[in-house]
């Protein structure tokens, strides 16, 4: 808000302008390659795929995923396996089983926790066994 600062900001410095005139930037685009695709649309990068490990949930999800990635059903399955048996389903075993990086598996296990379903015992309600039921009139 002060006028001195505004004046300093908008003032042109001849020394810097002269130095800036000496700067020359040259930019070149890489040569363009023409692909002979034959009219087909093919992916430019070939990804190595792996079959999913879904077991009985196979019909619910995709069949193949790129290596280093997992499907949603696989993610839920491995999170639940780790939750139920953490000594068996360690981060190292999960990384090896699903072709993932250990760092990513550790992050997954740290930040994503599957829901827990709790079933409360049902209250035992006594049925009314009155012999003389009253009729509303």
TrEMBL record:
Pfam families cross-referenced by the UniProt entry: UPF0240 (PF06784)
InterPro entries in the cross-refs: NDUFAF4
GO BP annotations listed: mitochondrial respiratory chain complex I assembly
Coiled coil segments of this chain: none
Highest taxon of source: Eukaryota
An annotated GO cellular component: mitochondrion
Recorded family membership: Belongs to the NDUFAF4 family.
Quaternary structure annotation from Swiss-Prot or TrEMBL: Binds calmodulin. Interacts with NDUFAF3.
UniProt-recorded name of the protein: NADH dehydrogenase [ubiquinone] 1 alpha subcomplex assembly factor 4
Source organism of the structure: Sterrhoptilus dennistouni
Gene: Ndufaf4
């Amino acid at each position: 808000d002060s006028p001195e600062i505004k004046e300093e900001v908008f003032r042109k410095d001849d020394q810097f302008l002269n130095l800036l005139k000496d700067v020359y930037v040259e930019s070149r685009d890489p040569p363009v390659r023409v692909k002979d695709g034959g009219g087909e649309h093919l992916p430019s990068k070939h990804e190595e795929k792996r079959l999913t490990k879904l077991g009985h949930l196979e019909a619910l999800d995709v069949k193949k995923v790129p290596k280093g990635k997992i499907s949603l059903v696989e993610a839920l399955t491995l999170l639940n396996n780790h939750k139920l048996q953490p000594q068996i389903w360690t981060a190292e075993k999960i990384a090896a089983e699903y072709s993932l990086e250990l760092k990513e598996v550790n992050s997954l296990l740290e930040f994503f926790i599957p829901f827990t379903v709790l079933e409360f015992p049902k209250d035992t309600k006594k049925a009314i066994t009155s012999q003389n039921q009253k009729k509303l009139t």
